[in-house]
From TrEMBL, chain A:
NCBIfam families: nuoF_fam, PRK13596.1. The gene is nuoF. This is NADH-quinone oxidoreductase subunit F. It comes from Flavobacterium silvisoli. It is an enzyme of class 7 (translocase). The keyword rRNA processing does not apply.
TrEMBL record, chain B:
The keyword Iron-sulfur applies. Pfam families: Fer2_4, Fer4_Nqo3, NADH-G_4Fe-4S_3. The keyword Repeat does not apply. This is 2Fe-2S iron-sulfur cluster binding domain-containing protein. GO terms for cellular component: membrane. Residues 89-128 form the 4Fe-4S His(Cys)3-ligated-type domain. Gene3D superfamilies: 3.10.20.740, 3.30.70.20. Residues 1-88 form the 2Fe-2S ferredoxin-type domain.
UniProtKB/TrEMBL annotation, chain C:
Gene3D superfamilies: Glutaredoxin, NADH-quinone oxidoreductase subunit E. It comes from the Bacteria. CDD domains: TRX_Fd_NuoE. Its cofactor is [2Fe-2S] cluster. This is NAD(P)H-dependent oxidoreductase subunit E. Belongs to the complex I 24 kDa subunit family. Keywords: 2Fe-2S, Iron, Iron-sulfur, Metal-binding. InterPro entries: NuoE-like, NuoE_dom, NuoE_N, Thioredoxin-like_sf. One of its GO terms (molecular function) is 2 iron, 2 sulfur cluster binding.
């Protein structure tokens, strides 16, 4: 059994409530930090832990904290990014729904470390019932004296509120989230200045993912070194993986970073193998934005080494033969899945979610979707594959925020690894008329038709 | 601080952006800018036309920047080296942005009042391609009436948001903004309100394309058929400089705009009284012809001296053509009730 | 642009106003605009789940901001409805795992059963079917949102049951 840090107590009956959570040792990190540690000592522990941002980018959390501008004397804020919207990812919701006080505890301890007296949790609008759960949890924590003025007699004050979003993927980007928190459209800001210097209301701000913040109590209760002892290399600690698609056990799993992809996929503790006897075709290991991996690159890297669930191993081989751990949205496809349809589906998502502020993303995402839709529906042209490649390469790297990259990568990876499937759609439009065209006749069985045509 | 752009060195003050430094140098290295406007705070960074390659970050940290950066919002560092015109990567990116800006653009220059002074035309001329790769249906918007002075043509808009900044920074009560998102983002008042404010006309001047044009000048004349003159008047509107460009056809003022510099930015904003209500020559003190950059199409008609008769000694009448071809046709005299093949033409069906 | 001109009765009750004031109190006194999104949710929930221009103007007045600032935000986010919608709106997630698990078939089934197309309310105003993007429930696909809550692991039988429950008034839309 892998070690559990976040979901250790998830099965304790009533852990949702303050009483049970407290009885099980909850809020100990707040006591320890406020009574025995200076804010800088907490930051140091988090730095030592090697904890990396769990929202997708994997930036070291302790380092991000150390960038916060303390010299300006302006009020500082901690904002929790609970705008979980990356397709394939649903871990934060699980954490907040079933053990909300863990996040509240993390927010208090982390805010103390940053010297923030006013902090927010920004949750996506669709998680309305979770918003209510958090509001109640905050009220309970406040009633018990964990929030407000002079917490535990330490002289430290903290107000914590939840803010609800309105339905926009882009608000998961930290500066768009700040804009949204200020009551504006979720348009990402130009960087620099970074939020650590000018964030919420131009004050120094740190934005962290739910899982990142929920990990802080354990690090404070134990130590940064204990946390760093789990995992491999720079991938320390545990990570929540949201597993979905054609696997037996779908849901949220906590893994020790470093477990092999094979074990995660097949052991009964985690995914439990494929859902049916249909073979594995592809894997998106870190949410819709990361490159899709074809079957032969899932369990082994191109160099023939075991592929592990770590930041490094999943990206081994770069974009040519690797992918990314991202937010841990693990989507498994068997041979019924159509890669073209899936890519179109993702492109439609990015087209729908583009904020429209900068040109390449505003115009390019729609273009990608339209071309992919034509190919999927049997109206593709041979030159469309090159066109798609060209469009995605022109969006990537030229936009204000990473949404442009996120829209480009899945298209690039699909063409890179599944080009023949695109060709099949273009050359045999009659065969892809029904949307479930690979259910009865998986691509493996008709692949030879494309191969024959290659001159 | 010292920066080098395309090998040309210049000394700049701290806080200068790369674009500003390039404009100080001038010439071909100046990146095109569709959304940045030096007179409006908070503009820039959106259109991505002005991307440049920072090949050396600074003297202190010489590492190159991994991505192309928007020169209008990136500050210069001491010892920074930038490739603009000289970088293939930059040229490729600008081409890409130009293509993206044009895929949904109606390309209706022949009927667009902005033609001839349009930044998108200039950008396409410099960075566009001849072929089209976009075969999908173009995105269109429902027309919206925003009053009797300004014509909004949303299909031409590139969402630079300059007009929103004008309303925010020059007027006290903004009624229009950006609605919707993604490729459906549009400039709108949402409720078809008239944009009615003493400085609203400046939206027309800052618009880089034909999305916002002067309704009082609509379809009157191509801009290059007008002769631009600098003129001024004692304007009593607070905040108005009263210094304008008059666009004349003969002795008639076709339209009034603010004075624009070589980067097509206004020198100073003007009020709606000057722009829309003062169309008599007597209202103005005319200073003289307005100069434009040498490759501007507006120079087409920039002959301010009286035209001398040109006499060409050649075979008699060779340039005159046949008499029959020189017969003038008067539209008014055409009989719309004429018949084709014996059937009367219904003027309704005849368009 | 075309806007719905259907009249909406505006009723900012005392309890709604109290909740709005509480939300405003979450932000510094000079940052009232920050409360815009939560306030819009509350106001929309109390007004048949849609926001007319008049209602948006009212929100602008309460927060002391310009009406256009409210319009800009309302049109940016997908959860604010600018026209009357079916009372029970079935918002099916169409992305990734839900698409893979046959949500399109379920949407077709639901539309057929209700006799409507996507995005058009039933004649009695009871139901509406809409497709939305990822709702963050990929492990429980196919799924949809109904009011404030998620309905997961859907199949045709569950859809039948849900429609019946809605008709019988057994479905709670908002958690107040």
């Amino acid at each position: 059994m892998g070690r559990k840090i976040l979901l250790d107590k998830i099965n304790v009956p009533g852990i949702k409530t303050y009483e049970v959570y407290r009885r099980e040792g909850g809020y100990a990190s707040v006591e320890k930090a406020l009574k025995k540690m200076t804010p800088d000592e907490v930051v140091e522990e988090v730095k030592t832990s090697g904890l990396r941002g769990r929202g997708g980018a994997g930036f070291p959390a302790g380092m991000k904290w150390s960038f916060i501008d303390k010299k300006s004397g302006k009020p500082r804020h901690l904002v929790c990014n609970a705008d979980e919207s990356e397709p394939g990812t649903f871990k934060d919701r699980y954490l907040m729904e079933y053990i909300p006080h863990l996040l509240i505890e993390g927010m208090i301890t982390s805010s103390y470390a940053l010297g923030a007296n006013l902090s927010y949790i920004y949750i996506r609008g669709e998680y309305m019932w979770v918003y209510k759960i958090l509001e109640r949890a905050i009220a309970e924590a406040k009633a018990a004296g964990w929030l407000g003025k002079n917490i535990l007699g330490s002289g430290y004050d903290l107000d914590l509120y939840v803010q609800i979003g309105g339905g926009a993927y882009i608000c998961g980007e930290e500066t768009a989230l700040i804009e949204s928190l200020e009551g504006n459209r979720g348009n990402p800001r130009l960087k620099p200045p970074f939020p650590a210097v000018q964030g919420l209301w131009q004050n120094p701000t740190v934005v962290n993912n739910v899982e990142t913040i929920a990990t802080v109590p354990w690090i404070v209760n134990n130590s940064g070194a204990d946390y760093a002892a789990i995992g491999i290399g720079r991938s320390t600690g545990t990570k929540l993986i949201s597993a979905s698609g054609n696997i037996r056990n779908q849901g949220v799993f906590e893994i020790e970073l470093g477990v092999s992809v094979y074990e995660f996929m097949n052991s009964d503790e985690y995914c439990g193998g494929m859902q049916t006897d249909r073979p594995l075709k592809a894997l998106v290991p870190g949410g819709s934005s990361v490159p899709i991996l074809p079957a032969h690159l899932i369990y082994k890297t191109a160099a023939g080494e075991d592929r592990l669930m770590t930041y490094e191993s999943l990206s081994d081989g770069g974009f040519a033969t690797g992918s990314m751990l991202g937010s841990g949205g693990f989507i498994v496809y068997d041979d019924r899945a159509c890669i073209v349809r899936n890519t179109w589906n993702f492109s439609r998502f990015y087209h729908h979610e583009s904020c429209g502020q900068c040109t390449p993303c505003r115009e390019g995402t729609g273009w990608l979707e339209k071309v992919l839709w034509r190919i999927e529906n049997g109206q593709g042209r041979e030159e469309d594959i090159e066109l798609l490649w060209s469009i995605q390469s022109k969006i990537e790297g030229n936009t204000i925020c990473p949404l442009g990259d996120a829209a480009s990568w899945p298209v690039a990876a699909a063409i890179r690894h599944f080009r023949d499937e695109f060709e099949y759609h273009i050359r045999f439009p009659e065969k892809v008329k029904n949307r479930d065209h690979f259910v009865a006749e998986p691509f493996e069985k008709v692949k030879h038709l494309v191969a024959k045509q290659i001159v | 601080m010292k920066v080098t752009i395309d090998g040309q060195e210049i000394e700049v003050a701290p806080g200068t952006t790369i674009l500003q430094a390039a404009r100080m140098i001038g010439g071909e290295s100046v990146p095109p800018a569709m959304c940045y406007y030096s007179k409006l705070k908070g503009t820039g960074g959106k259109c991505r036309c002005c991307l440049v390659d920072v090949t050396k970050g600074s003297e202190a940290d010489p590492r190159p920047m991994p991505k192309l950066v928007a020169s209008c919002v990136t500050g210069c560092q001491d010892g920074m080296e930038v490739a603009s015109k000289k970088s293939d990567r930059v040229a490729e990116a600008r081409k890409a942005v130009t293509e993206f800006l044009l895929i949904n653009h109606p390309l209706d220059c022949p009927v667009c009042d902005q033609a001839g002074e349009c930044d998108l035309q200039n950008l396409s001329f410099e960075h566009g391609k001849l072929q089209h790769r976009f075969i999908e249906e173009k995105r269109t918007f429902e027309p919206e009436d925003i009053g009797d002075k300004i014509q909004l043509h949303m299909n031409r808009c590139i969402v630079c948001q300059r007009c929103v900044e004008v309303a925010d920074q020059l007027t006290d009560k903004r009624v229009h903004g950006v609605l919707n998102r993604g490729d459906h983002s549009q400039i709108s008042t949402c409720v078809s309100a008239a944009i009615d404010n003493e400085f609203s006309g400046n939206m027309i001047d800052v618009c880089p394309v034909g999305a916002l044009t002067d309704k009082t000048f609509r379809f009157k004349s191509r801009v290059w058929f007008n002769k631009p003159f600098n003129a001024h008047r004692e304007c009593t509107t607070p905040g108005c400089c009263g210094k304008v460009t008059l666009w004349m056809f003969g002795n008639e003022i076709q339209r009034v705009t603010a004075r624009k510099d070589e980067f097509h930015e206004v020198e100073d904003f003007i009020c709606n009284t000057c722009r829309f209500d003062k169309k008599e020559v007597a209202d103005w003190v005319i200073e003289g012809p307005r100069q434009f950059e040498k490759d501007s199409v507006i120079n087409q008609n920039k002959k301010y001296d009286t035209t001398e008769k040109v006499v060409i000694e050649t075979e008699k009448g060779i340039l005159m053509g046949r008499d029959v071809d020189r017969k003038k046709i008067s539209m008014a005299e055409i009989d719309y009730n004429e018949k084709i093949d014996g059937n009367p033409i219904n003027s309704k069906n005849n368009g | 642009m075309e806007r719905s001109h259907i009249k909406q009765e505006i009723n900012i009750t005392e309890s709604l106003m109290a909740r709005i004031n509480e939300l405003i109190s979450h932000y510094p006194a000079d940052k009232k605009k920050s409360a815009l999104l939560p306030v819009l949710h509350e106001v929309q929930d109390a007004h048949d789940n849609w926001l007319s221009i008049e209602l948006q103007n009212k929100v602008a007045e309460i927060l002391g901001i310009l009406p256009i600032e409210v319009y800009e935000v309302v049109t940016f986010y997908t959860m604010f409805n600018q026209r009357p919608i079916g009372k029970y709106m079935f918002e099916f997630c169409q992305t990734a795992a839900c698409c893979q698990n046959g949500v399109e078939d379920l949407m077709d089934y639901t539309c057929e059963k209700l006799g409507v197309g996507i995005g058009e309310p039933t004649a009695d105003g009871m139901f509406e079917v809409r497709g939305v993007e990822c709702l963050g429930a990929c492990g429980y696909a196919p799924m949809m949102q109904l009011g404030d809550f998620y309905q997961e692991h859907l199949n045709k039988e569950k859809i039948d049951q849900l429609i019946q429950d809605c008709k019988d008034g057994k479905i709670t839309l908002h958690d107040k």
